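Bump. Still looking for ABC3 transporter permease C-terminal domain-containing protein structure tokens.
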Amino acid sequence: MATENAVIPVPTTATTERTILKSAWLEWMHQDALTPHAAKSTSRSSITNILALKARTTSAAFSTSQDIWGLSYHETSRHKGQFCIGCCSVFLVVFSVAVMLTIITVAPVVFVTIAEQWKGETDLTVVPRWGSGWARLNYTRVAQVLRDHEAFSLHAPRYSSVGGGIWNPKSCNGWNPLTPTDNAWTYDGPADNDAKREDCRNDPNTCINSLCTAGWWANAWVIDTEKERRIDVGRSWTLPPVPVGSVYLGKRISNGMGLHVGDWVMWQHFTEQMPTVNAYVKEQVENATGQTIDEIDVVNVPLRVAAIFDENSSNKFPQENRDDNLMLLELGTILETVAPYYAPQYPQEFRDGIVQASRKGHAYHEVFNIIFSRTTPRYIGYLGGSWQTLARQYGAWGSELSFRLGYDFIEATYDVLTAMQNNDTIAQFLSLLTTMLVILLCALSCFLIYNLLMVSVETRTFDLGVLRMVGQKRWQTIATLCFQALTYSIPAWVTGLLLAQLLFAVGKVFAERALRMSMRPKLAPSAIAIATALGLIVPLVSAIVPIRQALHANLRDSLDKRQNKLKATVVTIERSSQGSLRDGLPYAVAGILMAGLGFTIYYLLPLALVSRNMELMFDLFIGLLIGMLLGLVLLASNFQPLAERVLLRGMFLVFFWESGAMHRIIKKNLLAHRRRNKKTATMFSFGLGFLIFLSVSFQIQVNGMRFGAMHSIAGDIKVASEETDDQGVMKPMTKISTLNEICESNRPFVKDWAFTTWGLYRLSNSVQNTQIENVGRLAQYSVDVVGVTSNFFNLPKPGEKIMVEGDRNPVLNGGMSATEELYTPEGRDTIILSTFLKSALGLEAGGRANYSQPLVLQVTTDTGSTDRYLRPLAFVDEAPYLRMTKFPATSRTAVAVSFPTYMNLSGGLVKSIDNIPFKSMHISVDRDHPDYDSLLTQVVNKLNDAIRNTDNRLLDLRHELEGYENAERIVSFVFVGTMFLVMVIALLSLAMCMLANTFEQSKEIGVLRALGVRRGVMFRIYVYESFVVTVAAGGLGIIMGTITGWSMCAQQATVSQLPLTFPFPWTTVIGMMVAAMFSAVITTAGPMQNLLFKRKIVSVLKD
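Sorry for the wait, here they are.
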């Protein structure tokens, strides 16, 4: 007794006492686990002294917040494994939120790049309004008007797509390579040919056409390189301004003409392109000299090739212009380049006047268009939100600009913004999913830290009970657990932000390379703020339930270490009273949710449909899907025990050699751990289900974009004339025989090709409508009657579901395709229709189509209507290029017919088969050929050469998909990383659940070991339990995700009318399940190894 009292120091001051007692407290905390057992054998006075010592040290330790932090740190250092798991959880939240929110902030950059591939790198283009009386814009005056308005300070002038002939002078009769700049022969003819000289003198405008061969029609763009670089147009354009007397040629025209850098070309410039400056100088010269100048319309300019550029290496120009024969000249020096080469009848004073006008900037007084950028870098202006938000912002900006320049004189087009509208759905989808991912990660992290703190509270039940007994206050207990939770946050916050910044900086390099766009290297400030807030909030929210349990624990039970931690029976007493808000809170929440759902469906959904607010409609659809997923989660949580029992019985049917006692013990364990297992299984199943839903949703969006391109091209190459005249009448394809020869000469790489015609109602202004009717004329639908070649449906398809045949006339199904049957004697006067018309026209009875009932195809013209009776041949769900669908459609769908039928239906507009107005040619190639890329490039170049100077346009599927593939790679990387983070946190939560289960039953494990149960049997019991919980939760999660994903796929297919299939993510699901089972075994093996192999039975029973 005296000895025990002697070891207690007697402090002289309060500070010294606190210091000594704190040291004594920490020494007691480090005592061996056997100390409580040894204390039982001491006398009552010894116990009293020990408790007195603990009371004094407790009072001193909690006297300041520093002591509380020190004790929290001390507790954390005792459980380094739990500390690492908690830090990893918070780290993943901070890291993923910072990265994802930054990525979603700059995600529009991807869609801006896709839009720029089509429309070029211009925010707004201003051109003279048709009918205003002006054909040019005075850029100098525009710059003066906008000088004091910073919002409109980013602009540059252009002469866009100026047509003109270009020749290789080596093919010209009269050109001397020793004097390449001599162009007099282009007006007067060669000196050695009197007949040619006479012709040239009579018509100098066409002289060069008769002297030169191998001429090309080039689209010249006259630009100001430095001004465009200043407004961020042509980010990847590296060439300097075009030198005086030189030209930049596109690779397509240079290869076709056999030109190289340093060679000379002859370019025919039309003086009407710059009429004002020519008239001004002409008037000045005539007034000064008193002589009249006889004008000619052209200037034949010799130009030296200064550079050859790849048209597709930059989005400086729109796609339709990059497909042309491009050549570039500099606006600031164009007049100086042209001036020396006017015809000989122009005096030298005129040439000098043109040079002087150039140096005074007269070339800027009359330009074709002016391009504007809203911000620099340009992509920053598109980071403001959804497409509707951007449309409002850019619309207000463009409207004010138009007002200042004059609404009556200009027209403004929003080039990039218009093209971005096509990708608005997936942009909203990404933004919404990012928000949901952040919420999911926070929820999983909260649950994980909750499990960590619960384990900490349960392991310290006796310590907390002693502290409460000797006078610890409630706020001190709360502060201790909060500080312990925050110890997870501080290091995780720092490392999370640092690694997020590092990853974003590295990913930025690859993104810039793929998107040809420079981005800011820093994380978004909003992302840093939100990540910081969540890094601090998540641990504190996670500590709420453990704090409640620590404060509400019974003091006697906390001090009694002999009783079992696991309560087999729980008694709940419900007091009969008037009730409180807390009692009715679940019902109130359920009522609010149901009322909100009813309001959403009854009012907001019709509002979105009527107002065509696609953003609101998309949010409603996604919200309903998430609600469905949450409802399935609740349903799955109730089926979890049933699934566990079924799986356990099935497992023991497989492991038949295990004893029945093991089955009963596992069953009892599942019952005892049901409360914790239910929470963990719910979170795991929700995480897995959400990952499936996320993967399916993303794949659906990507497949939809890719399908649109593949459906439009309907092969690997499409050559089409989709232009109409001012009256809306079609312009048919030309050079058909040449295109056929190119395809034939490139067999077998070119497998096959087919043609389609223009719709019958586009043949002439006299055709007003074409519609299909049943015989009773009770149902009428406007259709687009299209003639197709017999092999159209036989073309190798670029993807699945491009061609889906719904139903077919069994009589005419002789082993040929439907389009081939159109050209058989039996298929005469038959048509191929959309599947939805089968029921819409009353052709379906008893689930089968009536192919014997004729239909009426009515062609309405200015002179009246003509009816033709036709029979249905096939009903198609989806067809390449043609708009056919199985879903009800309000707009015009296609009807496919043979060329003879098409000619007969035209009412004399098509006189013979030779006069068929072709609209498109679809070419399929061998995609498995080892030289696919090079051979496809050769074919595309030959076809482009053949259709130059025509209204035909060529589309290459490989090139069309490049933008989508780049976007898919970037977004896929983001989602793969996100799914990995969700999987890690979910698996860590599962691991902590298994750890808590084994800890709760440590005494039972000690008892079973004392009774002689082998270690291997004990190990398998808990491994089987974790396996059952994991697989049952995973199976329910797969079912939930599959139902939700399939629902979204079906909804998207209905809305978009695309034949989308459900892309089940087998790789994700299998990887998640394998990782979960592996994690269950590993996390069970750790605690069980400690209880079974490292600790003695006596030590386990004493805990």
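The first strand starts at residue 124 and ends at 128.

Edit: fixed formatting.
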